[in-house]
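fold-stage: in
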Amino acid sequence: MDLKDIVSISGKPGLYKILAQGKNNIFVESLTEKKRFPAYASDKISSLQDISIYTLDDDLKLTDVYDLMFKNLDGKNALSHKENPKKLRDYLLTIIPTYDYERVYDSDVKKLFQWYNILQKLGFLQIKEEKIVEKKATKPKPKAKPSSKSSTKKTSVSKKA
């Protein structure tokens, strides 16, 4: 799962895809509404690749959390972010039993589920193992090298004709 081009902008709902980068801003497109606009350096922009969740041990990257959720849900939608926060937290405990209940707020859990459902609906979530298998299956074949002078002569003959 590669979420480096997917960002969250503080104060704006939803997720955005980075399209281009300017000198003082980046141009983004809303994943749900498909609207494009510039996001400036003064906006708080967070890449989903860089976001982590507090656990009792080490922090867990959001991409790893989404991998666990995807495997646990068999690629289906998660609970709606509009559910009771206690229900969302209980479900999160089944996926990540060591997440820090005190430092992860209800709003964070709601965003986690909302973003998961957006990414799952649009097909951004895939298991890493599938990508590796696909790459191994589609190895490019080496190209044959033209080695004879006769092929050059044939080309020149065909051009004259």
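fold-stage: in (second)
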Amino acid sequence: MYAQQNGLPIFIENELRLDDLNVRGFIDLGFLEDGMLYDIKTCNAWRWKLLFGRNANPKEVTKNYALQLGTYGLWFKRKYGYLNGLVLVFYNKDNSRMREYVLDLDCIDKAEEYWSNTHQIITESKKENKPPTLQLGVAPAEEWECNVKYCQFFDVCGGGIKGNF
């Protein structure tokens, strides 16, 4: 309502496409104010504690969100030609507390690099007529994701990345 009352662009389930990088996604909820793109994330009390508690390391916890919002920022900057900042807004659904986390704009370049590398890997594997190889940082993005308990394709891909587990 705030965005609508103030005439701000709002994105609800808005599709974004970066065709040159073979990226398609949807912004669940985001809005723009003063050139700042906000993306709202809901979390429970446990996640809130990880993000903002005494021993929290928000940069580590928000790493994947930074890639996601950096991708949104890349799309927005390409489509509208400007962007002053990116802000993750966390909403604690257990008690309605809210807190912002401002991202460095270099996450836009990191997102573009990530998707460019991923696109190159997929393109090369298609030329060779074989599936892409597992590479940490691309698929899976994190080492802990490559295990039988987390990934339903663990056995299909040959048991994950060898030597790491």
